[in-house]
Amino acid sequence: MDISIIVPLYNEEQNVFPFTQAVVDVLDGLNKSYEVIFVDDGSTDGTFMNLCEVAQKIPSVKVVSFKRNYGQTSAMAAGFNYSSGGIVIPMDGDLQNDPRDIPRLLAKLEEGYDVVSGWRKDRKDRTFSRIFPSTIANKVISLISGVHLHDYGCTLKAYRRNVIEDVRLYGEMHRFIPIYAVWHGASVAEIEVEHHPRRFGKSKYGFERTVKVILDLMVIKFLGQYVQKPIYVFGGLGILSIIGGFLSGLWALYLKFFRHTSLIQTPLPLIFVLLIVLGFNAILMGLLAEICIRIYYESQNKPTYLVRETRNFG
Fold first, then answer.
1. pLDDT tens-digit profile of 229-287?
2. In the CATH hierarchy, which top-level class contains the domain 3-206+307-311?
3. HEC profile for the chain?
4. pLDDT recorded at residue 25
């Protein structure tokens, strides 16, 4: 198989037929073998029924259906696991990504790159609630990771299979695959792609996803630089805690001996130390939990999803 298109869907019944027609029309003109793998992420509308109808008519269309909603990252991971193409291209199924950009992604890969990321330069979304926070997030991610892309949130990307074979996805980390790829020595390019307004259905993105992305970015930074030397994090924060406690003690002594203020008259030193310690403990416990969850899944080779049924996999 030359190309695998991965399409996560959640309650997109109106988009199934027009999207399938659009993407198949483009792929038929490439003279390459291909498969289109739809991952139904526990939809509660008629998405799965429409996908079954499409799969019955078009053998190159394959369907993976989850028992419940696991999120876009798990759907993407399932698509990667069930795909067999040498080149894997994930994209949104809401008709905002344009299938006509697929040949351009492939052409860029042919220049020798391992990953080609789409950039929705002229993005057709709400400015305040979607574009502005996304722009800030992309700048922060690029700064922290060292992998400079304009649009980490664009699902439309192209990967060579060897880049994604060893990638394990959790949380909202599908957007960080280019960072994983660079860590493994891959070359990454970016091209401008079309972006269309949503015609049917409603967006599944909200403010809570921004919070998740920020937390996942912290994990990415930790795993990228400190997973093999966590003492640098634990020891560094421990030293800061000790220094903070030492300075608090000095200030308390200053108040006692030079301002004649009893230590029991002001709660500020205790509050300061307590909040700092609790904050550090919370962050470190979160990082430890991330490591533990990876051990849980990967040591037992457990997937992060459960499949209800499939279509056209033989």
1. 776 777 677 787 877 777 887 787 788 788 877 777 777 778 778 878 888 877 787 78
2. alpha beta
3. CCEEEEEEECCCCCCHHHHHHHHHHHHHCCCCCEEEEEEECCCCCCHHHHHHHHHHHCCCEEEEEECCCCCHHHHHHHHHHHCCCCEEEECCCCCCECHHHHHHHHHHHCCCCCEEEEECCCCCCCHHHHHHHHHHHHHHHHHHHCCCCCCCCCCCEEEEHHHHCCCCCCCCHHHHHHHHHHHCCCCEEEEECCECCCCCCCCCCCHHHHHHHHHHHHHHHHHHHCCCCCHHHHHHHHHHHHHHHHHHHHHHHHHHHHCCCCCCCCCHHHHHHHHHHHHHHHHHHHHHHHHHHHHHHHHCCCCCCCEEEEECCC
4. 95
Band (pLDDT 50/70/90 cuts) for residue 104 is very high
In this prediction the pTM is: 0.75
Encoding tokens for residue 260?
A: 């004649």
